[in-house]
Amino acid sequence: AGGTDEATEQRGAAELQAMLTKGDREGACRAAMEHGLWAPALLLSSYMNLAAYTQVMAEFTRRTFALGSPLRTIYLLFAGQGKALFDPTEVEAVLDGWQQNLAVIVANRTPEDHAVLQLLGDALWQLRGQVEAAQLCYLLAGVSPE
Fold it and tell me: Which Gene Ontology terms describe the biological processes this protein takes part in (predicted)?
């Protein structure tokens, strides 16, 4: 997933070059994303603003990593979008691999991880009835269960 063939890559590179020659970083970044050129998209967005970077990171993550995978989980946290893991389209897959997802969150702390750990605990408790697992998440988040 997220790969490109050589012809698409070359067309994308030509489009990027034309836009960058005109100083159009935003257009070049969009073109890079459309062509699946994630390294250039991430690099360009890092020279734009934080919102652009997090948008590109989140889109890269969604197109590249499977629902519920620990890589998807941690990359969404890196993009500042960890709460998206609890959208109806994502949450069941996250819960299916909750132990691995919990491990990757705790091993790679981020500014929003406490809120995400609490949401993981809430989902485990409410959707799966896994009280002990939920309490572990609350403990790691530094909150008391409500």
Answer: Golgi organization; protein localization to endoplasmic reticulum exit site; vesicle-mediated transport
